[in-house]
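Q: Given only this backbone (322 positions), what sequence would you predict?
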């Protein structure tokens, strides 16, 4: 979301209102470690384009952003031996940045394509995000192949937005109503050597991501916890709601949690315990209201859960904490 608020404001829009419509708050732009539902990002982009009457909002946003918002992924690419290693690494590690889509490198005959795939239900609201992300992909390729490089073609599943000079921004032919979203490259470009290849640095970066960022159990639990902390006060935090926000089927989410040695009930219980302790320490909410905020049917159910967590009632805990 880097640069989103500034562009919306410059175009005469109201960033806070648009983010709120997408289920976000303006402060999320200042919290770089927050996990944001991918669907909310797509809605924010599309809403901004409509509200500001800027049909190429995604393209304009891309022009204001460098690649720093992708963190260590940029460095992995920068020190890859060639374009193929860089793109292959990004397809593997992109889920550190987003869980809402899947990048795919596909080679057929003399050409290769770098595709952005997502669930069809998400794709209906993704035109602006796709255009911004395809320009980002071209920026990545240019790290190795040079600033003057342009892909053979760019494919978009959506229709052309009238009034936009696409070839000016992309530097190549654009095929709309295409079978997928992606950039088309010559196969031989994949083997183009990187002039600043450093496999030692590349290996260190991969080891870092493997050990610190991309362990599936940590990623999944972090995403679910972040969502629960936001959804519990709304009263809408079922497994189905979580799965929808994470852009996966409910059974897929449950299977992944099981594989990571986790359960929805355990994560929910942990988040409620964390929130209860924070609210008791920082607010003066009546116990009945706090129980309702945490999604309990009544205060007695909350008291029972709190006693299980701490071996005492909420009131006793407050008295001991004074």
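A: Predicted residues:
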């Amino acid at each position: 979301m880097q640069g989103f608020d500034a562009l919306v404001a410059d175009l005469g829009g109201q960033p806070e209102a648009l983010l709120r419509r997408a289920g976000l708050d303006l402060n999320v732009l200042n919290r770089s470690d927050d996990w944001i539902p991918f669907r909310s990002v797509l809605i924010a982009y599309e809403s901004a384009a409509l509200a500001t009457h800027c049909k190429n909002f995604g393209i304009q946003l891309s022009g204001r952003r460098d690649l720093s918002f992708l963190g260590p992924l940029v460095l992995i690419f920068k020190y890859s031996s060639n374009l193929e290693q860089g793109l292959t690494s990004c397809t593997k590690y992109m889920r550190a940045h987003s869980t809402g889509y899947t990048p795919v490198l596909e080679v057929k005959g003399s050409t290769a394509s770098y595709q952005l795939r997502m669930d069809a239900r998400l794709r209906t609201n993704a035109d602006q995000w796709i255009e911004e992300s395809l320009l980002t992909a071209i920026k990545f390729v240019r790290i190795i192949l040079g600033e003057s490089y342009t892909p053979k073609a760019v494919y978009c599943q959506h229709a052309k937005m009238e009034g936009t000079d696409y070839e000016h921004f992309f530097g190549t032919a654009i095929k709309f109503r295409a079978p997928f979203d992606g950039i088309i490259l010559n196969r031989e470009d994949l083997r183009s050597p990187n002039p600043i290849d450093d496999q030692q640095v590349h290996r260190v970066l991969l080891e870092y991501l493997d050990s610190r960022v991309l362990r599936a159990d940590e990623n999944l639990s972090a995403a679910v916890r972040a969502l629960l902390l936001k959804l519990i006060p709304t009263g809408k935090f079922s497994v189905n709601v979580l799965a929808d926000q994470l852009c996966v089927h409910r059974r897929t989410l449950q299977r992944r949690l099981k594989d990571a040695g986790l359960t929805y009930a355990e994560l929910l219980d942990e988040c409620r315990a964390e929130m209860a302790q924070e609210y008791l320490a920082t607010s003066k909410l009546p116990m009945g209201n706090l129980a309702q905020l945490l999604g309990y049917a009544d205060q007695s159910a909350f008291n029972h859960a709190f006693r299980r967590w701490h071996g005492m009632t909420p009131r006793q805990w407050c008295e001991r904490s004074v």
